[in-house]
């Protein structure tokens, strides 16, 4: 019986193990928000600008104490948040190098050293200057997450059977939102987000790396890496039979052989060559636009704004409503896992972006008329929950794994690195500029996102092909259709000559 299309226990363990890296990324994204005030007080004490009397006076006041607004505390706090993105931007360029150096499995194993080191720096931060220890830990963790955000989708994309590639690829995003939700729950004041336990809360971000190290030796290496990069056909066959059970691996080996022949014809493309190349320009432009549509959709603004909207709507504990948004986030990522291989990547991305555009307009109307009609607060709340739902159906998970589908083996690592850097950079820019844009545009800020979302929807409708159920070969051919000119072939030969040299 052909079990090549069935999900096996080994495949499940391999995908789960890889996704622990994504869980760690989600946890690190969310963990810093809950204990902000507690950490700022520790920074102020360490910097010598903390006054116990001011803290007591401010306990019953809505205004933050003076030392929490002290320029040094503000700078160090902002740096604690932003340094994470800077670490990710720097390391995202190294994804291809780390993935090819010793393989996907050993690559993930090696970088776990960074995650454990980062966790220890934050766990032990009270032993020295907390602000320096936390900022160092966040920088190292960001560097780790930049690598894991490339390696996890790359590995899952390469081991997943064609029929389940979308669903398994979406698990990267599911693990991220589960990590964010986990950090929100254990970051509550009565759990770990308090004066005594906050270093443990931050230090736990390194815990999934320890579990991943224990499980990685049981995971098969990517058959595509073994066959296409190393040329080890027998090992690739063994890996395939471990992943898919006892079945005739010949069709899969045949597909990889054709891809290897193509990869041998095309050079091992460096990041710079890929940026300059006209041959891959369409795929690269699509990959970058997919990642930009994720970050510039306004999703981070929603998380930023949600607590204040819930407060205005009369929710007595807005932090629980924000956790509610995290739960919706997770549920609708599961919906995407179920739908992505049936409805297709293009359809779900279009539905998600279009729905978010309508929700952004509804949110603007709700916020603008909040003082006139009290029931408009419920319109705003509903719009927030729907906005998050539409994001997780398509624009959230799909950009992470579609890049691996759009490129053949030669340019794939470089493309994942460039797309990852684009994602981290736009994330950093949004984080730094959103407060100023919000102050300038007030409630109309979501109209800006609605316009961007409309633009991305039109672009994806016109330019992005459906990749569901297609081989990597067929997807690459879709882009080259009718445009592989004599000039392109010459360029490929020149690239190959420069790589062979």
Automatic annotation (TrEMBL):
InterPro entries: GLUT (IPR045263), MFS_dom (IPR020846), MFS_sugar_transport-like (IPR005828), MFS_trans_sf (IPR036259), Sugar/inositol_transpt (IPR003663), Sugar_transporter_CS (IPR005829). The chain crosses the membrane at residues 7-27, 74-98, 110-129, 135-156, 168-192, 284-307, 319-340, 347-367, 373-393, 414-437, 443-462. GO terms for biological process: D-glucose import; dehydroascorbic acid transport. Keywords: Membrane, Transmembrane, Transmembrane helix, Transport. GO terms for molecular function: D-glucose transmembrane transporter activity. The keyword Nucleus does not apply. It is found in: Membrane. One of its GO terms (cellular component) is plasma membrane. It is a multi-pass membrane protein. Residues 14-468 form the Major facilitator superfamily (MFS) profile domain. The keyword Transmembrane applies. Pfam families: Sugar_tr. It comes from the Eukaryota. Its main location: membrane. Belongs to the major facilitator superfamily. Sugar transporter (TC 2.A.1.1) family. PANTHER family: SOLUTE CARRIER FAMILY 2 (PTHR23503), SOLUTE CARRIER FAMILY 2, FACILITATED GLUCOSE TRANSPORTER MEMBER 2 (PTHR23503:SF27). This is Major facilitator superfamily (MFS) profile domain-containing protein.
């Amino acid at each position: 019986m052909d079990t090549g299309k069935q999900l096996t226990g080994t495949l499940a363990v391999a995908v789960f193990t890889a996704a622990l890296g994504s869980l760690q990324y989600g946890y690190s994204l969310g963990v810093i928000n809950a204990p902000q005030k507690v950490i700022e007080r520790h920074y102020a004490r360490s910097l010598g600008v903390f006054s116990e009397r001011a803290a007591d006076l401010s306990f019953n006041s809505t205004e933050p104490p003076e030392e929490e607004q002290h320029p040094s505390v503000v700078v160090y706090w902002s740096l604690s948040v932003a340094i994470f993105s800077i670490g990710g931007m720097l390391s995202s360029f190294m994804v291809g190098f780390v993935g090819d150096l010793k393989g996907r499995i050993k690559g993930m194993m090696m970088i776990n050293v960074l995650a454990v080191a980062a966790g220890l720096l934050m766990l032990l931060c009270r032993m020295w200057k907390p602000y320096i220890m936390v900022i160092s830990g966040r920088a190292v963790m960001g560097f780790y997450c930049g690598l894991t955000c490339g390696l996890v989708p790359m590995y899952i994309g390469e081991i997943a059977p064609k029929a389940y590639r979308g669903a398994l690829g979406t698990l990267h995003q599911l693990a991220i939102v589960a990590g964010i939700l986990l950090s929100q729950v254990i970051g509550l004041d009565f759990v770990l987000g308090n004066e005594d336990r906050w270093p443990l809360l931050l230090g736990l971000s390194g815990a999934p790396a320890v579990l991943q190290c224990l499980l990685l030796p049981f995971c098969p290496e990517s058959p595509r890496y073994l066959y296409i990069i190393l040329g080890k056909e027998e090992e690739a066959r063994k890996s395939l039979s471990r992943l898919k059970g006892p079945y005739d691996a010949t069709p899969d080996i045949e597909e990889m052989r054709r891809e290897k022949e193509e990869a041998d014809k095309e050079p091992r493309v460096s990041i710079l060559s890929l940026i300059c190349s006209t041959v891959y320009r369409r795929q690269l432009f699509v990959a970058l636009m997919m990642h930009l549509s994720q970050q510039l959709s306004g999703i981070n603004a929603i998380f930023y704004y949600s607590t204040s909207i819930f407060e205005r709507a009369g929710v007595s504990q807005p932090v629980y409503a924000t956790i509610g948004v995290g739960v919706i986030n997770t549920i609708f990522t599961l919906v995407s896992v179920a739908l992505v291989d049936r409805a297709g990547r293009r359809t779900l991305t279009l539905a998600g972006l279009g729905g978010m555009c309508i929700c952004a307009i509804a949110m603007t109307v709700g916020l603008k008329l909040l003082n006139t009609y009290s029931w408009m607060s419920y319109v705003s709340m509903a719009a927030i929950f729907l906005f998050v739902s539409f994001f997780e159906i398509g624009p959230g998970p799909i950009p992470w794994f579609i890049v691996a589908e759009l490129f053949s083996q030669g340019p794939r690592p470089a493309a994942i690195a460039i797309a990852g850097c684009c994602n981290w950079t736009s994330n950093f820019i949004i984080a730094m500029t959103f407060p100023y844009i919000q102050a300038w545009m007030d409630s109309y800020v979501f109209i800006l996102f609605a316009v961007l979302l409309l633009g991305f929807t039109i672009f994806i409708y016109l330019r992005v092909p459906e990749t569901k159920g297609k081989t990597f070969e067929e997807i690459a051919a879709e882009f080259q259709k009718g445009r592989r000119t004599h000039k392109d072939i010459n360029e490929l030969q020149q690239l190959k000559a420069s790589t062979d040299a």
